[in-house]
Amino acid sequence: MNDEYIGGVPLLWGFTTFNPMEVAVHCRWCLAWHHHGLTALHNAIDYYQAHCYARPEWYDRGYWIRPTETSMDRVYKQSRLARPYEVRLLLAGKTSPTIQRKQAARSPRPLPPVVDWAEYRREKLPPSAPPQWPTSYPTFPDDEDD
Known about the structure:
Blueprint: E1 5-6, E2 9-16, E3 22-27, E4 32-37, E5 46-48, E6 63-71, H1 72-75, H2 84-91, H3 97-104
Parallel strand pairs: 2-6
Antiparallel strand pairs: 1-2, 2-3, 3-4, 5-6
């Protein structure tokens, strides 16, 4: 779980999306992804208004987002998403053991950059000549039965 706070306001990881001027945040309180337009330079921590429908105690204060170069697509499977009935419970201000377990799970983290292995490959060897098949086969003396 991401327990980083700045002045009582949570600090969340922001992930890139297809839109270069947008950042996606996984909210561990309502178990959903929220999308925000970037208002600061990339990799600069900035304040954003909360879109969380679970209405945690800090909702009116919003949250801080630390953008990363990691794509949302790469970390999407790490996130714990709420099912429709869990969304209805959260909207009603209720919870369940399953929701609490998902909220306590580790939030998606930035991944190391994708490695371009092409620059680490060895030089290509020249193409080898096609195999040379023999034009004649060895002959053996006939085996004579004694």
